[in-house]
TrEMBL record:
Keywords, alphabetical: Nucleus, Ribosome biogenesis
Positions in coiled-coil regions: none
Gene Ontology, cellular component aspect: nucleolus; nucleoplasm
Pfam family, one: Nop53
Biased composition (Basic and acidic residues): 254-276
Domain of life: Eukaryota
Name of the protein: Ribosome biogenesis protein NOP53
Region (Disordered): 241-282
Main localization, broad class: nucleus
Keyword Ribonucleoprotein: no
Length: 419
């Protein structure tokens, strides 16, 4: 159990039981400061501190022993014992003494000295008077049209001395320079520079809006994929039809080969014997069969072509129906803000406007917070596409430089020696 606090009743008990060690330590420190030169608290900052403006040379030497001097400092450092050549003083430089008083004893006047100096240097003496900029007139304007007299002088000079140089043709501005750009929208009306985006592409969209946009874009992608597969199947079918060998050509080749064999076997040509009636009937029947076979082949080829024509006619009819439907829908379009990706087929330039990128987050890409958000789209690409949609810029493809010389594959002689 801790001892109780000692009693401080009375002076003797108070002196005995009160701790004054801190006060004694403070008094001892104060006495030491007085002995060493004075109390530190009572001194000023100038008495306590000193500002070193030169630094320690030993520290600088030790630093330069370990650190390498920069090449730029080494180049501009003065290492030569010969001083550098001074620049020739100008006409208006002075050493503080008035020129007239310095040359008053000379016979030559100050004006003559300045005139001779200007003549020696090949320039006119600088005048001490300053000219106001208000009095200066501009004689040449690079953006103004040429005066008639200047044009006449140039034409006369061209006719006399430079007649062999063809005259430059004046620039003609195109008719469409002052016309407004033609919009590429379906309705043909001007497209706004900045469209109002759909609510489903927000980083934190409502489920109904996001789901509707996802279903719509998914249906578009499925339709495009089906169209691509149909085109691929049609191309493969046409390729297979083209690969079918022609029987007529094969028969011609066989006849030619048999004839060449018979010619090789019978180098000496004999007079043909007189054909009998049976041989003539056999040849006639063979020609009739050959004619029937050729007619069947022709009918088969015509049937294949007719099927292709029917298919192409169906495609054309479907495209025409689609065009009419789009035209009817185009008349019902009230606002292009609701159809930002609906562009017409007309091109501004050699290349059509590409399909707009899909800026939609999939279910696994939706973020819970801005920290885990994956940004979609690009502002620079959006601005460029907006300029193309409004008809301000034409759509172009990057031009790649074609290789001038073809690669040549050669075989080394060292490899040929081992054959």
């Amino acid at each position: 159990m801790a001892s109780k606090q000692p009693s401080r009743k009375g002076k003797k008990a108070w002196r005995k039981n009160v701790d004054i060690s801190e006060i004694n330590a403070g008094l001892d420190q104060l006495r030491d400061e007085i002995i060493q030169g004075g109390v530190i608290v009572e001194k000023t900052d100038e008495q306590l501190f000193a500002l070193d403006t030169t630094g320690d040379t030993a520290i600088a030497k030790a630093h330069f022993k370990t650190a390498k001097v920069l090449k730029a400092d080494e180049i501009i450092s003065a290492r030569s014992a010969v001083p550098a050549i001074r620049k020739r003083p100008g006409l208006n430089t002075t050493n503080g003494i008035i020129a007239k008083k310095a040359r008053r004893a000379n016979v030559i006047t100050y004006k003559d000295i300045e005139r001779m100096k200007a003549t020696a240097y090949g320039q006119e003496a600088a005048s001490g008077e300053l000219t106001s900029t208000k009095n200066i007139t501009i004689d040449y304007d690079p953006w103004a049209e040429e005066a008639p007299q200047d044009v006449a002088k140039k034409e006369a000079l061209r006719e006399t001395e430079f007649s062999f140089i063809p005259a430059p043709q004046p620039f003609k501005e195109p008719k469409t320079l002052k016309q407004p750009p033609v919009s590429l929208a379906v309705s043909g009306r001007p497209v706004p520079a900045v469209r109002v985006p759909e609510a489903g592409i927000s980083y934190n969209p409502e489920f109904a809006q996001w789901d509707a946009l996802l279903q719509k874009e998914g249906a578009k992608e499925v339709e495009l994929e089906q169209k691509r597969l149909a085109e691929k199947a049609e191309a493969e079918r046409i390729k297979a039809l083209a690969a079918i060998p022609d029987e007529e050509e094969e028969s011609d080749e066989e006849n030619h080969s048999t004839e060449s064999d018979t010619e090789a076997e019978k180098p000496v040509k004999k007079m043909p014997d007189r054909k009998t009636q049976a041989q003539r009937n056999k040849i006639k029947r063979r020609k009739e069969l050959e004619l029937i076979r050729l007619q069947e082949q022709r009918l088969k080829r015509q049937a294949a072509e007719f099927s292709l024509v029917k298919k192409y006619a169906k495609d054309v009819e479907a495209r025409e129906r689609l065009r009419l439907a789009k035209r009817a829908a185009r008349l019902n379009i009230d606002d292009d803000e609701k159809n930002p990706k609906l562009m017409r087929r007309r091109k501004f330039g050699k290349v059509g406007l590409p399909r707009a990128p899909l800026e939609l987050q999939l279910p696994d890409e939706l973020a819970d917070s801005l920290r885990t958000l994956k940004p979609e789209g690009n502002l620079l690409r959006d601005r460029m596409r907006s300029l193309r949609e409004r008809g301000v810029l034409e759509t172009r493809l990057p031009v790649t430089q074609r290789r001038k010389h073809q690669k040549k594959v050669s075989e080394k002689w060292s490899y040929k020696d081992f054959k």
